[in-house]
């Protein structure tokens, strides 16, 4: 488990030359965001514990070997972080290239087109070509699970960032989702590989809200397209933050 930020202790660091003071325990990614420096990310989200799996948020820290993940690295006094340089840009493009090589290229007809973090990040890191084929991506042909009345789960679009698994556990405390297998065989599964409707899913929608692709998608969006705007509210009974879509 990660250490929670300690507001009683302040740490000052420099991110791209900008001095920032934040509570001890804050991640480098969140510290940078406070200075309006947005580090590319896929597996991190503002309301979940950092996981450090996608490696898109890789940075350089003076005195450190390698390229640590900004989302899982806590700040330290006097730390000097670089978030942008040609080497980091190349590393991020290579990471994104691997993700895109394992993802269908149907953006123009995808219901998430224009509202897809994978698409946004591919643009943000300047990906222009993918040198790899789709060999090994056997899940691309997997059939979408439409058993749930409100959303679908399409494993062919899944990047296995685990945000849905963590949202289910951390936001809702339900543990209906898990990751099965490794490498190309890794996949998100409901229960023991059941249909969503037969799992412990309580239909809170936390997984759908956090999904960065069109893997978990509201049926209403698939049928009617993206709403013009949405309102997020959190009631006193649960922490999900329901998203009401308006025409
Ligand atoms: Fe940091 Fe994915 S956002 S490793």
If classified by CATH, what would the architecture of the largest domain be? 2-Layer Sandwich
CATH fold node name of the largest domain:
Alpha-Beta Plaits
What's the overall average pLDDT, rounded?
89
Distinct compounds present: FE2/S2 (inorganic) cluster
Can you tell me the number of structural domains? 2
Give the proportion of residues in helices: 10-25%
**Poorly predicted sequence stretches spanning 5 or more consecutive residues:** none
Question: How large is the count of helical segments?
Answer: 6
Mind telling me the CATH class of the largest domain? Alpha Beta
Order of helices and strands: EEHEEHHEHEEHEHEE
| Radius of gyration, CA atoms, in whole angstroms | 19 Å
Number of strands: 10
Arrangement of strands in the largest sheet: 2-1-4-3
Your description of this structure?
It comes from Exilibacterium tricleocarpae. Residues 87-126 form the 4Fe-4S His(Cys)3-ligated-type domain. Residues 149-180, 193-221 form the 4Fe-4S ferredoxin-type domain. Helix content is 21%, strand content 19%. The chain is α+β, with helices and mostly antiparallel strands. It is globular and about 50 Å long. Residues 41-44, 52-57, 69, 71 line the site of FE2/S2 (inorganic) cluster.
